[in-house]
Protein 1
Amino acid sequence: METETETTTAKESWIKKRTTTVTSSTTKTTTISTPAKLYGKDLSEYDEVDVDALLAQLSPEEINILAKEVDPDDSFLPPNERCSYECEKEPTGPLDRKKLIEHINKQALETPDLPENEPYVKGTVRGKKWLPPARSEKDKEVEEGIAIDMGEEYEQALTSATQEEIIDLAAILGFHSMMNQDQYHASLLNKGQPIGLGWDGITKSQQQKVYPMDPPNNTDIEDSIKRVKDDDPKLIELNFNNIKNISDEKLIQLFDALPDNEHLEVLSLTNVGLTDKTALLLAQAIEKSKTLRVLNVETNFISPPTIVALVRSLLKARTVEEFRASNQRSSVLGNKIEMEITELVEKNSSLLRLGLHLEFNDARHRVAAHLQRNIDRIRKDLELRLQFRFFNNLHRKSAKIQ
């Protein structure tokens, strides 16, 4: 009896551990979780096992079997080490990629398509067809009640108007999305609508205009350099654009003669093959120039640091009002170069126009604001000078009359 009573008490205590105990305030669930086991042993017992020693005891066949069952979840391993190669056939010959693709295409064409469970029949509706919801009577009454009274004159004019006149009216009212470009521009220019085009008309492409090629630049290089050296007073503008056979020696001679010239105002060197070597000499010549106002070195092979040197030389000259140097070897200047150019331009009080593509908004806005301030200041100075001359002349005239 005592043994049966002890057994019953043990069973009741074990059942209480596995069941839910309910109290007056809350409900608690107690779950007894058994420790995980692998091959009859706890996982904690495998912590001290030397895995490398166990792998060394396996044969190659056993390692292959183990590799099929275990996938090392390591993305750094190459695929040939993660996946076991199971093809045991000997190669039939060298790989011919062209024949392999032809064989795959042939297999794809010869393999029949899977038959459809339900063949397609034109006009049949499968599934539930969508129907718009029924409209209420109130909505219909509201739409029917909307009416615009434009008067008899406008009604008669719209009724008797042709389609071209209605298109003109739509263009005047700004309904440009209802017509094509030809119709809209014809209305704005008052050319009359093309007859027969209508609302569904399509704009046809126009034949491109053929413009004649620009004549070659026949400027005599040696004579021009000589005139610059001799300080010819008639030589105010020198244009060497698109002359590609100018040697570095000729350019060096030109730049050496610039500091002593007191009449040249415009120098254009677009697409002449300027490099950093000659451009640095040009920067030194600009610093000593006395009359140069416009300098154009676009479409050459000048690097961004050399462009910075050219912009820095404008500070010492204080005469150049327009500088252009876009479309160079490096299409992108970079943030550092653009900031250097911006700081140099902000220090320049004589520069009015800058031909450079600045990518960053900060540099572009700061340069534009500073150039505008220079233009405003020069305009005010010019107005004051004109007023001074006007009143001075007026004073002289009154003095003569007296």
Protein 2
Amino acid sequence: MKEDIEQSENRVQEEIKAPLIIQTNKRLVTDEEQAENGCCEKKQDRCMVYLSTFVAVCGSFAFGSCVGYSSPTQSAIREDLNLSIAEFSLFGSILTFGAMIGAITSGPIADYIGRKGAMRMSSAFCVAGWLAIYFAQGALSLDIGRSATGYGMGVFSYVVPVFIAEIAPRDLRGALTTINQLMICCGVSVAFIIGTMLTWRTLALTGIIPCAILLFGLCIIPESPRWLAKIGHQKEFELALRRLRGKDVDISEEAAEIQDYIETLEKLPKVNLFDLFQRRYSSSLIVGVGLMVFQQFGGINGICFYTGSIFESSGFPSDIGTIIYAIIQVPITALGAALIDRAGRKPLLLVSGTGLVIGCMLTGISFYLKGHEIAIKAAPILAVTGILVYIGSFSVGMGAVPWVVMSEIYPINIKGTAGSLATLVNWFGAWACSYTFNFLMTWNSFGTFILYAAVNALSILFVIKIVPETKGRTLEQIQAAINAS
């Protein structure tokens, strides 16, 4: 009897154990399969985000084409249209005035007609401007066309990074927003290189190509979900968010987070330019505007606009130096885009600022040596090294990261106004730097670059003390952290 009882108990235990083991194994396999399937779905779900980013950064490429147009075409335009140096200087610098007007109006326009609407309008201005330059027979048509393209640049410089930041998942936001600066660099580099092979009128027509791609692509991609939520289009908001995240992805949590944040902001009064200087917005305003000040007054546009003359003054062949300059900035900007969501915003800014100081010091020393006839053969190499270190350092951090941070730190109720202010400051700095560069070089070449080195050294202190790290946070979490501080 005891043996029968023991045998029956053993059979029962075995029957109980067997299903549990099988079920556990099945459950483990199922979990692994789900994890693998989830990864696959995640990649597929981001296709629309990548496509939308590609379409938006066509505007950034158009931006770069405008910036790079004047450098390789200067002698040909002056010769064909009999322009004086003063007339061509006006043609080159009026771009920044158009961009300043675009910066002032970009925020309200993007808030009123949407991010896609602002990009459409900006593309139309650029196309009209390039056509005016192509058909120009005198200085007036050139200046009108250049102003129109400048206006389009000013709008693009604000709306493209904002649109990308608003559609991107938090883990991709930094890298995707940095592509904005990468495509600007590509546009400048392509204009520099093909400008040596094409006539100035044909080069103007190439500027229409990215605008045409952008206008076509805007018919395919969704509008910014955050903007749709802000204006109360609930159905379109959910549809746009689902298109960006995928059909099989649960968007309820992200949608609720965005809606809660929008509802909170709706309780706040609408702001104008003077309201930005209230205490509650001071931290965001200081960070956004401060980064734009240091980005421009560190000397980038003076060096970029007059790279050829810098190389000539130092005794290095300008054509070779300009091509090297154009080529090197693209891969380094791509490196910055790859690192921004891994290393973070602040580390890249600090590394970039340090490189800018070193580049300015090397270039300044080369002019000092040449001016005092010391190591004359080494001076050109030192100048080229300094400029390349400068542009490489700018491309990896200070070129792109301020735009990324600007698109992240402003609350959505002031994003339009505050973004316009920051972009206006940026373009004013671009004009001031490019306008004063030749005067400073005439005064003292060595002193010019030492002055830029000092500004970039101050930017390092500003980043350490003031700029917050925004890596890995949603836009709503960033606002909560800034408000808490």
Protein 3
Amino acid sequence: MDLLLVTPEEKKKIHEYYNVDEKEIKEDVMMIKSWKEKQPHLPDTLTDDLIEKILLRNKFRVERTKHKLDNYYSLRGLYKDLIQNLEKVIPSQEATTYLPLPKLTPNLERLVIVKIMDADPDHYEVIDLVKFTIAVQEVRLLYDHDVGTRIIYDAKGVTLRHMMKWNPLILTRLSTLVEKAYSSRIVGLECLNLPSFANKMMAIFKLALRPKLYDRIMIHENLESLYKVVPKEYLTSEYGGTVGTIPDLLKKWDKAIESHKDYLEKSYESVSLEHLRPVDMTDEKYGAFGVDGTFKKLAID
């Protein structure tokens, strides 16, 4: 997918980064498929590709991946209102964008730009950004391969009228879905063009984000500061880069969402059936995985 480019060499480097090879990955996928057969509450839409993508996002740790796969189906069911009508998202017409950039950085990270495109507060609704974000997350699970996501939040054009529509509960639910259901590893949140009321903005972020993620926020006074973290050429032309313009990339994402319309429609029903969940899955962190799982190695972060 040219909107989420990953070269064979980059994929090889990612696997080397996690010290895994294709044979090990296939073995892990088979272990998880065997585990899934004992989980009647999970739907039959679990593919090898989805398993591999969740494995990647969880550093190829089998037990953690089982937990996150369970989260993927259960949390999307819990927040079903947020995953409804994803197929109706039209990226180029949204007031705020959630735009993955097409090239991985030298650190094998996927950059994502979040910014207001239509400054009229009357056209702005945070739920629209939530659905845009989730639709992109669904597509990324099909194609993307990276070691983490680095978000560039450009606050240019944000006013207090926009912020009055920021619902911390919805933002928290979005953060939970992104991290715990889609297993997206946010390696940094780079903030640009913060307004004079940035303290109010940060206060809402602190309510909505986990402390670990909040601590990864970096405020940049200018583009030169951003370039110290993100190589200039990997950005859009609006930020001095060479990967295209935001409007052109958004139009391409229009086509991507349209071409995945059926997939996104079906994803609404692809959630866990909680009444079929095995009764012994009670552990707070891993359900029954901590008891019945298959551990290959001990890894301590």
Protein 4
Amino acid sequence: MVYLVGHPSFSNSPLVTLIGILEGLYVPLQIREFDPNKIHDIKKIGVYTRFPDELRGLIRVATTLEIGRRVACDIGEPDPERMSPPKVTEFIKNLFSNSSISLSIIHDEQVFAKEYPLFEAVNRAASKIERHQGRIIFLEYQPKEQIEKSLFLVGKGVTYDTGGIDVKIQGSMMGMSRDKCGAAAVAGFMQIVNIIKPKHMRIVGAIGVVRNSVGSNGYVQDELIKARSGVLVRIGNTDAEGRMIMADVLCKCKEMALKAVNPHLYTIATLTGHASLAVGLGYNIVIDNGPAKKEKHAQKLQLMGEEISDPFEVSSLRREDFNSHKGKNIGDDVLQSSNKPSSVMRRGHQSPCAFLMMASGLDKHGSGDANPLKYSHLDIAGSIGDYPDPITGAPVLALANFHLLNIEDCSKGKENQ
């Protein structure tokens, strides 16, 4: 039995308490599959509060959020074989079968090479192993009502990151099965969308799932690859694969956003080791471009994250972030990365955001351009759970609170949306 006392300084403490209890009762997918008896002894939770009219709404919101968070955990936690790219795809297909979410799946290598060449480069080493072959998955929700807002969320889904030819050393591969948590978060968020069915909002989730393998067929430093946007990218480090698999997908979403109503684009990724060094474990990072910054998006998201106990720190883009990715040779447009790991770089988690903008063409849609587009990059490397500690499902709760929920109304028992 849980008694929700509440707290005068934290208006959402009853909801956060319920979410915390549900999180503590989560059992990883593979453990459930290996032995269905390995679950918690607690089978039911009783909830008591002095304000019973709030209870129904609180339980509804808590369970909705936990369903989405658990989808993210079920994709993000399993080992590289249980959640290989084809198996992530199968999981998502089963999840959204006969739902309000439509699916489109790309697995043809020729399509990758023509339309998503940066993704294709990362997929190259794994492409000859059928069970490791990459996928790009588009999930879309269309409301019945007139659209007033559009969201495009791109998730990094590296099912295992060896570093590629720039192979990780000194035990750094441990936990790299969680390098798919950005993609997992997008799927979890879309499951909450599927439950809530928000009015007036179109939402597109785009997921690149790939294994960054080592092999003679792998991409290497010094390669020149023309991105979907048309810019020429020089490879500096094959362990900077996350930005590679998202850039072309982000470019595709940018093309859709230019025709969309009031769009906002996101990339969500366990992108850099620098992120957890910069802000510590347990915190997401948000970086806005100019149009998003004008609306104080990062500060609003930070507030919504605090409200639901899914906290964000705010970082800023600077001119040196773009300068560090400018081409160094005649004809080069963009340098993918330094050949050093992000953890030793001065602006190791900020500059990849600049690369994503430059490689996708989003840098042509800033505040001073004819068609400005709001864009925010979320680095969740420090917030997903330090392996092998329990996985968190971040930042599903914060994004849901910001875009989909009105917690005050829900906690008072009113129907959401």
